[in-house]
Design brief:
Blueprint (H helix, E strand, L loop, with lengths): L18 E4 L6 H5 L3 E9 L2 E8 L2 E6 L5 H13 L4 E10 L9 E10 L13 E2 L2 H13 L4 E9 L2 H5 L7 H13 L4 E3 L2 H11 L2 E11 H5 L12 H19 L1
Parallel strand pairs: 1-4, 1-5, 5-10, 6-8, 8-9
Antiparallel strand pairs: 2-3, 3-4, 5-9, 6-7, 6-10
Helix pairs in contact: 2-6, 3-8
């Protein structure tokens, strides 16, 4: 572990903790931290907004990663250097299966590596898989809170608009073909960070998992199903992440 100030997140070993919750959006950090005891902001540099708080007496960091794999990998690498070994990503996603409704919780047991960052850590044949204990804690948390949830594979991509406007891209045929393949394979939802999180964790010997709030479902919309239930409130996903972290802390202590 480094005692020096980390270049991007502006944290040192003195700020370290074993546990971290990682939203993408810097604006969501304060909301997540409000579910912890004694929350306070530590620093805000670039896309990395950091708060600390406590669960059952154990320090937990809440750090935003920004959008996409590159900034997520930087965040995880530098947090690991100051002592963090357990990560829960909490974010938003778009549903891909017809039964994944807006407002549902999606727990990612694995991620399709349709991005570039993880390829600089491990060959593409290596799967991006969440830690079993973290995933189990997320499932237990969602069940305890009585939130409708799904557990399975998500798609992690680099380009937001390649999903939403594939016909405008030079590789539109490839994008559409793969999208159909992911759905046929049971992929639950699409997001942008989990593959990098899981692969960096694998290489660095960390444990990580992800929980997402489904904002909308473009497959439902494409079939004419109304999306008036388009829900932007991420509270349920946040509560699931916090409760799962509490479960992990209790298990670690025992």
């Amino acid at each position: 572990m480094s005692t020096h100030l980390q270049y991007h997140i502006n944290l040192s070993k003195e700020n370290g903790a074993k546990y971290a919750i990682l939203p993408g959006d810097p604006g969501r950090v304060e909301k997540i931290a409000s579910f912890l005891d004694n929350p306070k902001q530590l620093t805000y540099n670039r896309e990395y907004n950091t708060y600390e708080g406590y669960l059952d007496g154990e320090k937990v960091l809440v750090v935003s990663t920004g959008i996409g794999g590159p900034s997520t990998a930087i965040c995880v690498e530098e947090l690991a250097k100051i002592g963090v070994n357990t990560f829960i990503r909490v974010g938003t996603c778009g549903g891909m299966q017809m039964n994944v409704d807006p407002g549902d919780i999606v727990i990612a047991s694995g991620a399709i590596r349709m991005e570039g960052t993880s390829r600089e850590y491990l060959p593409i044949e290596f799967p991006a898989v969440a830690d079993f204990d973290v995933t189990t804690a997320l499932k237990r948390a969602a069940q305890k809170l009585s939130f409708k949830h799904h557990i399975g594979v998500v798609q992690a991509k680099d380009s937001f608009y390649s999903q939403h406007s594939p016909e405008t891209m030079g590789v539109s045929d490839e994008l559409n073909s793969k999208w159909k393949a992911w759905i046929k394979g049971g992929c639950l939802a699409s997001e942008m960070e989990s593959a990098a999180l899981y692969i960096v964790s694998a290489v660095r010997g960390l444990r990580s998992g992800s929980v997402f709030h489904c904002v909308w479902n473009q497959e439902q919309a494409g079939c004419g199903m109304p999306q008036e239930n388009h829900i932007s409130d991420t509270t349920c996903a946040i509560k699931t992440a916090v409760e799962a972290m509490r479960i992990l802390i209790e298990e670690d202590k025992s």
